[in-house]
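Appendix B. Worked example

We walk through a single record from start to finish. Start with the input: the chain for SHS family lactate transporter-like MFS transporter, Edaphobacter aggregans, length 423.
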Amino acid sequence: MALLRELRSLTAVQRRTFAACFLAWTLDAFDFFLLTVCLKAIAADFRVSIPQIAEAIFFTLVMRPVGALLFGYLAERFGRRPTLMINVLAFSICGLASAFAPTLTAFLVLRALFGVAMGGVWGVAAALALETLPASGRGTFSGLLQEGYVFGNLLAGALFWLVFPHLHGAGIFTAWRVLFMIGALPALLAFYMQFRVEESPVWLAAKAKRLAEGGSHRSSFSFQSFADYWPRFLFLVALMTAFNSFSHGSQDLYPTFLQKDHALDPSNVGFIVVISNIGAILGGITCGTASERFGRKRMIIISALMALPVIPLWAWSHSIASLALGGFLMQFMVQGAFGIVPAHINELSPGPVRAVFPGFAYQLGNLISSRNGVFQAAIAARYFGGMLTYVMAGAVVIGSLAVATVTALGREARGEDWSKESA
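Next comes the structure step. The output line below is what the pipeline stores for this chain.
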């Protein structure tokens, strides 16, 4: 298997660095999805409605671009490794503090702060991982790194499934609060990074060059240097808006769609969602690896467009088996395209702003598309009697074409040599 072959080719330092970056993104997503699986329990504890608690998700998403900008700036100035360590500690502390929130207001504030910390992880982890790994394997590891988000979702779901029903405490030991306490364990990753992970060789080379030229040991990064590349940045924001619309459009209301339009019980919904997530993981790794041979742009466009013929099976099937197959194939294509993103947008980003550009563009695109689920539900309610089939099929069509079109407008930067960059 290509992934195993690539892993065996890495040095011990490269393997440890990639593992730490993958776990940072996985555990960040794990902490985020703990909120989504506990919405009902949290609402009951605070004696409010589920929509009121769901605002915590919105506040998290709103603050993620702030974190991408803040931690990206720190990573450019002080290095990827120490910034990621601080980032991991920050989201772990905010997650733990959420477990002790005495009121709804305090909880919402803490989730907004968690959003700041969460927003920084993807860009800094991707920069550290991809700058450390050999250029020839970026596509493969890009696919695996991106699917850390799916692994985090599965981990949160598994904890909720296996542990939550057995928790019967009260007060600060209410079931959801205990899960959030468990969610603070990622802080241990920071201690691992302190002793087992090294700084990005690209960042260190740039630092050495500055010192040799009589400059400061710190990067000269400033927001003016960021502004110098604004046309490229706007393109990346448009690209990530298309990608996040494609992903959210096929995922956010999918469990509701299965329950409402197909009248499936929770166990069958859970089964199909798990199968879909397996498809997502395999798609990200497979298409990421293929992008090394066929190019980033070509594989993104092919993967995105291949989602279109899957729509009838995905949306209009009637048996559990065919719905599961449709879910598997749809997410294989959607996340197959998305799995190439870390490599592609890092390669499109200028070296002096690589820790800021990709993460900030990613999170802004995520923010712009964050209300897609609300729009889909509203359209379904107004025009289709609440049925989601046509709306979700339309979202996939629009998302697929948007991703393919915007990607085609950009350039191919597969395997660019970063070792000669300066900052």
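Two observations about the output. The chain has two domains: 12-202, 229-414+419-423. The chain has a mean pLDDT of 87.
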